[in-house]
Amino acid sequence: MLTLAHISPRNRRPETGLIALAGCGVLLLLLGAPAPAAPVDAELKARLRDAIADTSSFDDKFTATVWLTDMALRLEKRVPDSDERVRILRHVHEEARRANLHPELVLAVIDVESAFDRFAISVAGARGLMQVMPFWLKELNQPEANLFDIQTNLRIGCTILRYYLDMEGGELTPALARYNGSVGKTWYSERVLGRLSSRWFKS
Questions:
Q1: What pLDDT digit, counting tens, does each position of 58-103 carry?
Q2: CA dist list (Å): 86 to 46, 118, 190, 199
Q3: Domain map of the chain by residue range?
């Protein structure tokens, strides 16, 4: 069973060599998960509603500050604007903690999904940092919500990822495949875990 505990600077794996599609303005990714053919899972829908209502913040501001300083240096080349960079990292840390996820894992997912372009749109229509499908807004009765908003996107994306991790008993490879919509395959999971071990490992 592969979990986050197995990923460390001493156990880094090379990336798969797949080339991320990058561009200016709107980023078109080929990694967006397609809209589900079956009705939306009721339990996941309930979790997302609870997440939207949760407004908790950091428990340990000192630890968060240390983490933010470290990660801001790593993110500088991808997000040159310092205000936006700190805003993304603050919300990543906050929403990952709320969903009981490692913030570094969330950063690795964002890196693969959108290359930190908060206005990214996939060919399937997934939007924002974590490439959330717009149908969730209808399901959650939040039609006015903006998936390009950093916190909104991260809150929904982190809740979905947490749900899939719980579904898979904490196993990262199948949970990440579910998040991407590539169940039964490992290429996407390997790519995320490669970014986690090479770029977003915990110091």
A1: 555 676 777 788 999 999 999 999 889 989 998 998 899 999 999 9
A2: 30, 13, 27, 17
A3: 44-110+146-198
> 177, 186 in Cβ contact below 8 A?
yes
pLDDT digits (tens, 9 = 90+) for 2-19: 444 434 333 333 333 332
Question: Which residue type sits at 15?
Answer: E
Phi/psi class of residue 184: alpha, beta or left (left: φ > 0; alpha: ψ in -120 to 50)? left
How many whole angstroms from its chain centre is CA 164?
12
- SS3 state at 132: strand
pLDDT tens for 36-50 read: 445 677 886 777 677
Distance CA(102)–CA(4), nearest Å, equals 8
Contact by Cβ (8 Å): 77, 137: no
Q: Does position 170 have pLDDT exceeding 80, yes or no? A: yes
CA dist 129 → 5, 13, 89 (Å): 24, 24, 12
* Residues 54, 134, 84, 70, Cα dihedral to 10°: 70
- List 132's β-bridge partners, or say none: 127
